[in-house]
């Protein structure tokens, strides 16, 4: 009887020690997460340190302008704001066409800081919003990965996400775009879904719907969530892993999440009317059929159950067919069958290039190259397969979701380079799982083979904790039958006693696990070398991420730099041109340019533009593309009909800036030709090649874009050598008849032209000349002189 007493006394001691260790581990994890948040924030400040606190890229300027309006006018004016500065003469309803999550978030932060008497400007808040939410995204990654594989994997994944270059490219200080907050919302929604799946808590299910609502407010990529989660639910049902927890995790998300999504003006009834959302509704019906089958299975006899299942499945199939028929009827009238152009481009990568050149013209919508994977996720590309394998050991509902997430994100990132941003969290999660498991195996192998290690220390504390807990529960259960014994024990009590006898003690369990782990241990030398290699791999990843943050992704596109033998050169031509427009043109003047520069012109020059980066009206953009592709006189007539006074072009031939309008010109031709058939791309190509030298076609040499870009270019070096195209231009000397140059920046990057006024028409002189011409012709025909007095 002494042995059971000793084992019983040892259990509370082990339990107390493990409780203390878990408490210490929780505090340590908290401080590590705090340091990871600081790392995520600080690594994104290189753009401010090296340059200045300024908004980057193109779209962020529109978001900044909208946030300014929100903080000045208030939320109600924001929802009803009609912007007449864009898409002249059409205008744009801002409140109903913008995802308001980013703007409302930054506006709330600004309001809170000013309420606390911290007087920060709106621009400063906008600049630092992305770094702040990158820390939040790292913490959300920890929560998600912890639910899948434990705290160790969660901390590793959070540290990887804090530094991954793909996410840094969209979250550096000044990158005030929707993705700045949307990636956090994406990961947090997934983490709450996994939490609900593991706990079956309706509270977490409600929080999951709210997080999904925030995601809908923030980014159009919310459709990825509302399709990935139904795919996982369907996978669980097909593989026989249905449970009540799965139902609680999914059903409230579809009902409450869809209702909340419909409240966002830019989404509205699209939440129930577009094909991107139909998969969630079909799976919603399927999971209710399955839930009802499981319910009736518990209350009916096997014979009645077969009859009921036949009836339920028949009704369920009928309902599914009816819903599918309704959905088909709804989308049949649409030429795209209810799908958006970007969604069809993801499903069919060739769709945009065939039918929607405006989507294909965006550089971030192009497929990535293999080097871009190494640049954006670096060594994680090699760790992802190991992480996928680790997710199958063992395969749970949570780990199957991670496998599905990484599989779909890899596909979508291969279609659009922009969606490397969606791949980054999945790659960090799977890599964190792989690294955590590898470190666990290697450190355990080293620990088992070190001399002087006691047998009690051979088992991990976390597992010992669970084993001792099970042992205590077993002993409590063993005491209950003795206390509540009856004269005639039932079959159930006999079965429990038999199971209790067959169960080994806690000490035997610990010894068994220790022996198994000893067999799985690697040789000491191999473990040490592998551990050092993993540390070197992590150091290489850190160095690459810091370099990417400091050099590759820190430079704002509004200010360019170049290093030569003479040192660092700064090209601030964009702000120079916008400042000239702001101070030297009338407030009501209209400026035409390619759509890339519309947001910046409106925000920085405060002038009305014809098209901008919203690209909602393809015909309007095609009109501008047609004008740029037409001869000077025809282009002047088009711009004059749009009440344009100034035309802005970006030219990089002098300094070697490759993203200029000449390199984008063929997209102007394609988009314009898609609406106006007289614009044909072959007319601008010589033997299928795009050329601007002496072999260029006459159509190319006489179009407006060529003339506005290369006007007086020969005066720079006498040869008119284009450093981007690396050739001398074909037509060096020409004059403009309908446009006049009014401003060219210091490095010739931005050139602004003014439309010449139409020639005055004096009606009297015109009539007199016409009458003289007619009288002369008639006198010649008659052969007699006309009497001047008549």
UniProtKB/TrEMBL annotation:
What family does the database annotate? Belongs to the STT3 family.
Q: Where is the STT3/PglB/AglB core domain?
A: 588-647
Entry's localization field: Endoplasmic reticulum membrane
Supply one GO molecular-function term. metal ion binding
What name does the UniProt record give this protein?
A: dolichyl-diphosphooligosaccharide--protein glycotransferase
Annotated segments matching region Disordered? 456-510, 763-790
InterPro entries attached to this UniProt entry: Oligo_trans_STT3 (IPR003674), STT3-PglB_core (IPR048999), STT3_N (IPR048307)
Name its co-factor(s).
Mn(2+); Mg(2+)
- Residues crossing the lipid bilayer are 23-43, 93-113, 125-144, 150-168, 180-205, 211-235, 247-272, 278-296, 308-332, 373-393, 400-417, 519-543
Recorded source organism is: Hibiscus trionum
Q: Where is the composition biased (Basic and acidic residues)?
A: 469-505
**Which residues fall in a compositionally biased region of kind Low complexity?**
772-781
Alphabetical list of Pfam families matching this protein = STT3 (PF02516), STT3-PglB_core (PF21436)
- GO CC term (a single one): endoplasmic reticulum membrane
Summarize the subunit comment: Component of the oligosaccharyltransferase (OST) complex.
* Membrane topology term: Multi-pass membrane protein
